[in-house]
Amino acid sequence: MTITLRLPIDAIICDMDGLLVDSEGLSVEAWRMALAEQGALLTDADIDEMFGLRIDEDAALLIDRYHLTATVAELVAAKSARMLAMVATHLAPMPGARELSEWFMATEVPHAVATSGLGDYAVGCLTATGLLGAFPIRVAGDEVPHGKPAPDIFLEAARRLGIRPERCLVLEDAPHGVAAANAAGMRVIAVPNAFTAPLPFPPVTARMASLHEVLAQVRS
């Protein structure tokens, strides 16, 4: 099935954190706690820079910036433990995510998740929000050499879908993800959340307020 959004689209690739699942606030809190244990304070500027990066890249950034004694692996483990505990009890889908997932399952539109999150974390988030069954094709941050804003994760998703990159539409909430989609030669709709909306974004095909608006567009 071909979706028309200015130009023909044959597949949709979704980010996860902040796009399908409402995890950004939980992630910020988990990083605050992990960093506080190291005697450092997470700032708003740190948060803005970290959205869309892989967890190991976030950890490396913080270690370098605050001259922490923890290793990347140790800081990742500290953050992950807190995040996974909150995912199990507090994570919810973003507005429109359930409806979009139901539409995917009811149609033949090829689709995938491409997330900077690690594989087990991605499965945990999608399971906790009831979205896992809608996304049998998933690419996680630890499955590609380079994280966003490099195009690797979206190119791998297109490869698994069997669709040429230029025929893919990416749904993203963060500037790093938009940059990655652009670098992959894909169309991209930005769907910013409360955390990323104030940030400057690279060029996009369209900017929409929610997945409800996206779904109305792709259905038309």
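the 2nd protein, sequnce then structure:
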Amino acid sequence: MKQKVVLAYSGGLDTSFCCIYLTRDLGFEVHSVIVNTGGFSDEELKAVEKRAFEMGVTSHHVVDETKNFYDSCVRYLIYGNVLKNNTYPLSVSAERVSQATAIANYAKEIGAEYVAHGSTGAGNDQVRFDMIFNILVPEVKILTPIRDLKLSREEEIEYLKKHGVEMNFEKAKYSINKGIWGTSVGGKETLTSNLGLPEDAWPTQVTSTEEKNLELTFEKGELVAIDGERYDHPTKAIQALQAIAQP
């Protein structure tokens, strides 16, 4: 009987590699989980699910943590005006706690012997995921294929091509993390400080050229209305503002 592993899955390069590697090379029964913290549309979630099954997962599960992430974390970042290095919001780093917690809970729910994530050995995400897993599910073993194999993104791409995986490999050269409180993009240019990202590395490109004035209403620091239209939760207002600003 195959052992179960719950894989933190986003559909990107790293977790796609993990999916193929864990199923085909190591023989695990892989259950993928995507934890949405506000960065995925319904259409994107459906596309991720389709890709997961194409990669050979046994099951795929979607957890919507958007509201919980905001209520338990983002709200207090706003209250404290918290900025890393007094420069930019804690977006991806903050949401990892909500994501790892949801994955740990799902691993307990289905009785998985392992959890896996696609973090490399270069950043802090590996620590965030490992710490939460060790606290919440200490009996479950952690698998980190990208970190353990010390793979470059180019090596991951070659591996997936060899296994017949089709995806936008030019876009896959960049690691993109989207959530309610921000989007981060990482690639070879971000390893140094003298290069900028090419325009096509961004998940969306600005196409609008006209100026637009908006009236934003805040209560206790939280966005509650745009141009007089109130929203039942700040996450709805933030997403509406993103839809306006994104083009």
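The helical segments are 13-25, 42-54, 66-79, 92-110, 125-136, 145-149, 153-162, 234-245. The mean pLDDT is 92.
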